[in-house]
Structure formats: C-alpha cells, structure tokens
Amino acid sequence: MQVGFRNTNELWASVLTQTLQHLGLTTAIICPGSRSTPLAVAFAQQAPEIDVISILDERSAAFFALGRAKATGLPPAIVCTSGTAGANFYPAVIEAKQTRVPLLVLTADRPPELRDCHSGQTIDQLKLYGSYPNWQTELALPVAEMGMLAYLRQTMVYAWERSLYPVPGPIHLNIPFRDPLAPIPEANVETQNLAFLQSQFNPEEFFAHVTKFSPSHHLPITPSVPLNDWQNSERGIIIAGVAQPQQPQEYCQAIAQLAQTLQFPVLAEGLSPVRNYASINPHIISTYDLILRNQQLAKQLTPEIVIQIGEMPTSPVLRNWLKSTAARGWVIDSSDQNLDPLHSRTVHLRVNVEELVSKQEGKFSLSPHHSTTPSSYLQLWHQVEVQVRTNVDHTFKQIDDLLESKIAWLLSQSLPPQTPLFIANSMPVRDVEYFWQLNQSGIRPFFNRGANGIDGTLSTALGIAHRHQSSVMLTGDLALLHDTNGFLIRNKFVGHLTIVLVNNNGGGIFEMLPIAKFEPPFEEFFATPQNIDFSQLCASYSVEHELITSWEQLQTKLNPLPTSGIRVLELRTNRKLDAQWRQENLGKFAKF
Length: 592
Description:
By secondary structure, the chain is of the alpha/beta class.
C-alpha cells in the first residue's frame, strides 16, 4: 500500500481511494476528464485491489456501475470531471434510489474561487441530484494536514455506510481540486510540508480501524407479526413481488416456509426468483394475471388477507383486482419506502422476509383448519393454475412463427442453471410476468424497475455480466438503441453477454394503448420506428450478430452460452400482429 506525496491533491486522493479499498470497494468506473485527474491517478496507481474501468459515456458508466452493484450488493465508485459530466449520472442515480442499489458518485469540481465567474466547464454541482441521494456533501479542499486527512477518512467511512444502511442507495460526494491536478511537485513551501508529513505518516496505523462494512452489521428490530390474524383465515394470499435479492435461494426458502405454514398460495411475479426455485414451494401461482382476467374466477378467488413481499407486481390486472377487495394487507420489506401504490388498508412490517421467518421460527402453531390438507380456497387456486398453465403451454407449442410473447416462455425453459438474466422494460417485463414458466434452474432475474425507464439498459446488463457468470439480456429494439454507447464498454468487459433482441421496429408496448387507434400521430410520435440494420450496427462495434429465424436455432444458441464476448441474437417480429395476438389471447387462457 502506497500513499502518494508528490502534491496535496495526490495525497488527498490517495487517502480517499485507499479508505474505500479498506472498506471493501471492488470496482471503480472512471470517466475521462481533467478536473478528476487526482482521483483517476489514485485509483489507477494506488488501489491495486480495485477493478478500475475507463468508460467514455457518463450515462453508460453510471448504469454499468448500477449493474455491478446489483450483482455484488456492494457500492461501486463512479468518477467524473466537473461540468455537465455529472448531470449524465442522474438517470442511474434515480434508478439506484428507487430500487435501493448502493452507489458512490464522486464528481470532481473546481474550487470555490473558480465558480460563478465563467472559468469554463463549471456548473452548480451542489445537490446536483436533488433529494435522490441517501446522503450528499461537498468535501473540503485538499489540505496536507493530519487532522484533515482524518476528516477525509471518516467522511469516506460514513459515505460507505450510508450507501448500505439503513437502506441501500446512492451517495454523492462533490470533490473540489485546485491545480496542479497531475501528480507533479508543488511550490517549495508546500513540498516541505508534504515531506514532513510523509515522514510522520504510518499507513498501517492510519487505516487500522477502517474495516469492511455490510448491512448485516445493523439488523433492524423485528416488528410484531400478526400470526393469529394470518392463521385464522383460510382465504389469504402471499404476493411475491418484484425483487432481486442477493441470496435468492434463501429468499425463496423463506417465502416457501411462510406459505407452507399458512397454507396460502404464492402469486409469484416473473421479476422474482421464486418461479425459478419452484421445487421448494408447492403453492406457487404463476398465471395470476391470466386467471384474474376471468371475472367469475376473480370473484371466487377474492382474499381476506394479502401479504405482499417486496414491491407490487407489474400486472395492472392484479392491482385492479386487489383494489376491488376489502382485504387487509401487510407489506414485508426492510426498506423505509412506501410500497403500497394502491393506498389500501396496509401495515408495513419493516423487515426482510428471511429475518421475519427466522425470528418467528417455533412460534408458528397451525390452527385446525391449517392442517396439511389444503383449504378449498387454496385448492381452487391450484386447479386453475394447472389448467391455465396447460393452456399456455399447449398454445405456444403449436406456434412455429416468431411471436414476441413466446420468447419469454422459451427462455424460462432454455437458459443454463443460475443464468443472470437482465429484462428490459416495456413489453419484455410484461411477457415474463404473463408467460414465464415455473422451473428449478435458479435463473436470476435483474431489471431496472425503479423508474421503469429504458435508459441504460445495455450498460446495466454489461455491469451485471462483468466478471460474473455468462449472462443474457432480453430487450426490444428501442431500449437497445437508446443505449448503444454501452457497446463502447466491450474492450473493458470481462465475461459474456448474449443479447436476445426482439426487433419489431418500434415501441411495441404503445400498440397496447388507446393511442394506437389514432393515426396520425401514433406511428411517428409513439411507435417511433428507427429502421436500423442491427447487423451493421453490431459490426461497427465489433460485436457478434446473428439473425434467428427459428425457435430451434434460438434454443441451440442459449444453452450452452459462450464464456466471453458480446453477441446479439436478433429475432424480427411483427409489432402489429404481436399486439393483435395479445389482445385476442390474453383473456382466453382462463376460459374453460
């Protein structure tokens, strides 16, 4: 470990980066620029245990960092120069806040005397991200003095902890630097000060108390759990909502244990690992959206108790059904956020489901009607699930043409075990919710459902796949085109990403909305077809491209997956016909 003493900025940046290294930082993403030179040099030269990656586009860099944080559960650092560079981090900061993902955002800045005087590449960077960071501050100007270095060290410790606890999220540190920015000697007086400080500085002693921190250091107090209320009802449901837990198997086991104890069905969102650990939970309902389109069944299945784990599923059909009930509700989630978009009679239990089940173990006592024999209510859910799932499977087996909705169904059966799968917004997330089959593969779904935007799709997926198991991304053409700068990461990328590209030349989700009947302006201003030749686009980035023309070809390409590189598997589909198929069929699967 070496702390740089060639000038004050180098010393300051060295202490900052090495404190983060001691805390457990594993990834730093550096965007090119001048004002951030001290940070770039310190990460590149003096932090050997950190994976330091240069990414040109700040928006892409921030989403790549978001992907790394999703995959590891730890905050990466993202560094940029002064001016509008930091503004390009904003979409990823919002997504990190909304989805509780830790990020350390480090924006370099000019010193106070060079602000508000047209000195160039200078904007107001204080509170640049509004209320979205968990915590934000501006560091003091670098000073070569032991007390100030201790201040810097402790501020970085606090920033790291606030990115993880009590709720993970982004941290913003604005970091001003005076010249010289490069690690060149300063004036004689300052050089003498640095030389004296260097002779007194003991790195081992200075960093001795800086240790790795994780959220497990601070566990919330388990709230009172209404077991009697839950166990005294036969008409209860558990909703396993949108979730990307760090330990998916433990998460699914806890939900399974709760479901077994209460004998409640588990309505499992496709953007949750629950459907991919089906063998441990016999009460999973995967076709709830299709089932509840049948008004008679929806009425028969009305619950008295609703236990929501994590965020509410995407399905508007499910949401409208829940709105129409008078059920009492609980949300199990350790965040400090309001996770009830329906504004119903809901009590938040601020604890994760694994801890709740662990702390309540031994306290569960089955009431007479919660014997091993399922209630008639639970049996009805199971019977309908089997019938609807059979109808879906039979329908897709008969479809030979490239239909957009079949892709998610096929992926659920074809991907190798444990594959990380990033699912883009708009239609892919909905097709996954409708059609993703139950399986035992342990596939790990990832997504950006905080703000539900399409920005940063490719970069996030690359961040998840970097130094990870071979990964897959399911995306439409517009979401991919919105982030093609992500392909610039290819030379820094370690691992493999297969992009399953649904190219319907436009925004397919808009075909499902009432505006689709109005032409003009629908095609130009909503569907927005771009008419891009993706083979040429991929060639310009030296990315492998293959046009998929059959389901058998797609399955062959998905298992086994390559171990390195980026490739695009393009399926060309008909946006109008796909929308027509959904409109004609989604309501039919539960009619029998």
